Amino acid sequence: SIPREQYAQIYKDNNHPIEYKKVPVPKPGPDEVLINIKYTGVCHTDLHAWKGDWPLRTKQNLIGGHEGAGVVVAVGELVEEIKVGDHAGIKWLNGSCGHCEFCMAGDEPLCEKALLSGYTVDGTFQQYAIGKAVHVARIPKEAPLDAIAPILCAGITVYKALKESNVRAGQTVAIVGAGGGLGSLAIQYAKAMGFRVIAIDTGSEKQEMCLKTLGAEEFVDFAKGDIVANVKSVTGGLGAHAVILLAVSEKPFQQAAEYCRSRGTIVCVGLPPKARVSAEVFSTVIRMITIKGSYVGNRLDTQEAIDFFARGLIKAPFKVGKLSELTKVFQLLEEGKVAGRYVLDTSV
Ligand code: 8ID
Ligand code: ZN
């Protein structure tokens, strides 16, 4: 039976202390489902939402979170394709209009009326969360709900970015921010897709994880020496075929063009506030460099990203914490101290 009250983490205002308290369990509308969230990932986006450091307003009294995996406990009267008892996930894109040219083309993240979990609508830092039925992710029953939670944003996003990079099997991709949540999954997806990986981040813990646990071929520490020269030296002098920028700092967005191979692609994914991406025009032209953005993924990307996981190809390390300890996890993320992803158990 569904309780009337549940625990949630609520941001009363940007940068104000986050309150862990009891709130009513929401009721699903006709086209919505209610999911008992068992585990939720903590994405750096959640930290941006709490701080309010992006040029996009959040909802007031927000419950954050957008990597929630759990069990469907109620469905609205119009919902036919998903049932009580199914395993399902709430991802960043909670809903979209379905009618605009972007939705019609399967580019629903670009919908101007998109609802964003844990940003413009309440998300997964609570025990029971609402999602539009057409957008919730289908999770196979065999998949562990803790390990799959990070796939619901980080996994989808990096899988899509790797597809957008147009890299082919056997070519080399530089992953910048490789030791973080998105980065650790990016290494695994890249390898599963047949790409060679150069991991870029800092510190011995992340280096060890990238090389030994995740299987990157090279690690370049951005805090040691000349990063452009170091990436070139491990790529036969030519640079990486693609660069996936996942870092939450501006510097790499201004350096990537220098170590991207001619004809290569730079995919911007990380969202450091007030940052600009820049490249010298002359060399961008004569070396035919492509610079583009990539934003989460659509429903098919979601299903494909989950398929890779379900087939056992994605095994990134994660730490399990308690929903009640969200503030502590934000602090660690802010300090760059999380190697891989934190996943929170919502029952404690
Ligand atoms: O759809 C999208 N585009 C999307 C989806 C999800 C998340 C974008 N994001 C954004 C987040 O909002 C955030 O800005 O991607 C960024 C990374 O999210 P994350 O992976 O959840 O953050 P993290 O776990 O803190 O990892 C960031 C890593 O970057 C490294 C850090 O050491 C950390 O491991 N890093 C930094 I900060 N500066 C770096 C640099 N100069 C760097 N790595 C290499 N070079
Ligand atoms: Zn996210």
By DSSP, the count of extended strands is 18
Report the end-to-end length measured between terminal Cα atoms: 19 Å
Question: Could you give the order of the helices and strands?
Answer: EEEHEEEEHEEEHHEHEHEHEHEHEHEHE
Taking the sheet with the most strands, its summary is: 7 strands, mixed
Shape: globular
CATH superfamily of the largest domain: Medium-chain alcohol dehydrogenases, catalytic domain
CATH topology of the largest domain: Quinone Oxidoreductase, Chain A, domain 1
CATH secondary-structure class of the largest domain: Alpha Beta
**Low-confidence regions:** none
* Ligand species: nicotinamide-8-iodo-adenine-dinucleotide, zinc ion
Task: Give the SSE layout.
Blueprint: E1 5-11, E2 18-24, E3 32-42, H1 44-51, E4 62-63, E5 68-75, E6 87-90, E7 93-95, H2 101-104, E8 115-116, E9 128-132, E10 137-138, H3 145-148, H4 154-164, E11 172-176, H5 181-192, E12 196-201, H6 204-213, E13 218-221, H7 227-233, E14 240-245, H8 251-259, E15 260-268, H9 281-286, E16 290-293, H10 299-310, E17 318-322, H11 326-334, E18 341-345
Parallel strand pairs: 11-12, 11-14, 12-13, 14-15, 15-16, 17-18
Antiparallel strand pairs: 1-2, 1-4, 3-5, 3-9, 3-18, 5-6, 6-10, 7-8
The structure holds nicotinamide-8-iodo-adenine-dinucleotide and zinc ion (ZN).
Zinc ion binds next to loops.
